[in-house]
Amino acid sequence: MNLDISAMVEQMWSAAKGPLGNAAGAAEPFAKSQFTNIGQTVASIGEGIVTGQITKEQAKYLLSIQEHATKSALLAVEGLGIVAVESALNAALGAVTSLVNGAVGFALI
Amino acid sequence: MSFLGRSILASILCVCFLTGCTVHLIMDYDPTLDQGITTAQSTMEQFFSQMDAEVGTPDAAFAKNQTFYVTMDAQLRTIATRAQSEPKSSIVVKQITELQGSFSDLKGLHQADGDKGLSHLEISAARSGIESEFISMLTLQLALKNRLKTPLTVPTAPTITK
């Protein structure tokens, strides 16, 4: 079965990274590794169908598992993005706190 | 943004600065939940290793492995309930729901194979997908855990010399 896994991974990553903005970089290595793994498994299921080792009914279950795995990876990417955004906001708040405390000379906030 | 909108936002930021609060967009790290996910993975891995060793034997039949399906179902329900009880946990809850979906597929596949049991190829493909899900879940748990180690404020103000 001819499946261009690299192209598939790039397509999946392009679709996933959009909403992440600047936080995309933090999630990229994880996401690409997961998408590659899922792509390779999908290819092996395809080969199993072609060689008759897997029936269509069995393939349906196995592909559904890969679909769940893909959704879970996308959810993790979303979560990693949120953690990154949260850290940036809190770092900014921390910097303001430091400036205010520095200006008044004691730990006001 | 309207004047009213700007006023509300400014008020929230003032309260935030005055109370020293931090922005919280996603659930807190819960070590019990993390442990529950690890335990569920261990149960799943043990099952896959056992099935892989028993391919083609009577012990691989679906009917002979009911205990695993009952135990795993209970473990997944337990972590799902735990996650649902946490605020801002929707992403983690959805990940557990996906894992429950994969577990249901695995059960359906095994049931369809009946007395024959799972083949090496089926075990390999199912295991790969489900392991991938555990990696996704544990990666997010690790990020939640590590954010606790990040200092959120700079505690020291410049020294005032008189």
Distance between the termini of chain B: 45 Å
Helix content of chain A: over 70%
- SS content category of chain B: mainly alpha
What would the average pLDDT of chain B be, to the nearest integer?
87
Task: Give start-end ranges of low-pLDDT stretches of chain B.
Answer: 151-159
Tally of distinct domains of chain B: 1
**Radius of gyration of chain B, in angstroms, nearest whole number:** 23 Å
Beta strands of chain B, count:
0
What gross morphology of chain A would you assign? Answer: rod-shaped
Radius of gyration of chain A: 22 Å
The CA-CA distance between the termini of chain A, in Å, is 62 Å
Which regions of chain A have little confidence, pLDDT < 50, spanning 5+ residues? none
Which chains have the largest interface? A-B, 49 and 53 residues
Q: What series of H and E elements makes up the topology of chain B?
A: HHHHH
Counted beta strands of chain A = 0
The general outline of chain B is elongated
Salient structural properties:
heterodimer; A: 109 residues; mainly alpha; rod-shaped; B: 162 residues; 5 helices
Overview of the molecule:
The complex is a heterodimer of chains A (109) and B (162). Chain A is mainly α. Chain B has five helices and no strands. In chain B, α2 runs antiparallel to α3 and α4 runs antiparallel to α5. About 6% of the residues of chain B have low confidence. Chain B is an all-alpha fold. Chain B has one domain. The radius of gyration of chain B is 23 Å and the shape is elongated. At the A-B interface, α2 and α3 of A face α1, α4 and α5 of B.
List the helices and strands and how they pair.
The complex is a heterodimer of chains A (109) and B (162).
Chain A: H1 5-17, H2 24-50, H3 56-104
Chain B: H1 3-19, H2 31-53, H3 66-84, H4 90-113, H5 120-147
Helix pairs in contact in B: 2-3, 2-5, 3-4, 4-5
